[in-house]
Automatic annotation (TrEMBL):
Its membrane topology: Multi-pass membrane protein
Entry's family note: Belongs to the NIPA (TC 2.A.7) family.
Organism: Prunus yedoensis var. nudiflora
One term under GO cellular component: plasma membrane
Protein's UniProt name: Probable magnesium transporter
Species classification: Eukaryota, Viridiplantae, Streptophyta, Embryophyta, Tracheophyta
Reported function: Acts as a Mg(2+) transporter. Can also transport other divalent cations such as Fe(2+), Sr(2+), Ba(2+), Mn(2+) and Co(2+) but to a much less extent than Mg(2+).
Membrane-spanning parts: 6-25, 52-73, 79-98, 105-125, 145-163, 172-197, 209-229, 241-262
Protein keywords: Cell membrane, Endosome, Ion transport, Magnesium, Membrane, Transmembrane, Transmembrane helix, Transport
Pfam families according to UniProt: Mg_trans_NIPA (PF05653)
Amino acid sequence: MYSSNLKGFILAVVSSAFIGSSFIIKKKGLRRAGVSGPRASVGGYGYLLEPLWWIGMITMVVGEIANFVAYIYAPAGLVTPLGALSIIVSAVLAHFLLKEKLQKMGMLGCLLCIVGSTVIVLHSPEERSLSSVEEIWELAIQPAFLLYTASVVAVTLVLILYCSPRHGQTNILIYIGICSMIGSLTVMSIKAIGIAIKLTLEGTNQLKYFQTWIFGMVAVTCIITQLNYLNMALDTFNTAIVSPIYYAMFTSFTIFASAIMFKDYSGQSLTSIASELCGFITVLSGTAILHSTREPDLPLITDLYTPLSPKVSWYIQSNGEWKQKDEDGSAPNFITVLRQDYFK
């Protein structure tokens, strides 16, 4: 038992290291791609031709596979909280490789995200046992989850069509919100596909059911959308901020979607529900702190031929003190009056 948990622990740590590193590698690839063409933040797709970006994608895939295998050897209560280590890996690598600084309050926000997410996971209900794709389909078409899906799609469309063009470059929650909400639907679809593959390998063919293919199409659509807006977020904002906010929001929406679809909280004690609520509030608090302490990135120079305005400094005397006055290229319109005793 202990050797099995140790394998799960090692795999979870390796997963976090790969996933955290992938954020940094992909951003370096995005920066390289932005030198020779339109950046991802403005709708460019030149990063698809950048080998470094693909290395980052492969690194993330390896991390996700390691995380999936870790659940085979260890319980979710051990593996899932360790996923927060990817935030620390990403922040440390961003500090050394991307020269992105994280303020002290930002570190506190990162810690709150980790603590809150850990509390949520440790008090989460047990996973429901499922035996077929058809059973998952029945859960997916129940009114409560259909309402959640419709709400996610509606809010996502508003963010994509209205908010993203106007505020996407200045508000980090727009891109990350799209990734997180769509990501919750991705997890539900991937779960169905995983069960279908497992049952098919065991001898019960699930590919003959149309539900399997619907879940597959939903998963592909959601994954493409996630990757697109995650790239835009990484290319626009500080990586040390994107990583924890994405982790916190994605975890929150996924737990919420799972609770609606699988009715996880039926039979849960009030203590467990209260603990998860406290964890959720902690995550939101950490996200707010991280967002408020984010250092704005330097603006891009869009016109290389725009001349720089000269800046002239003048020193004037006021109330017996010398003060500096800066003027941008304007001619002096005042005279400095010196005291007579200065020449004595």
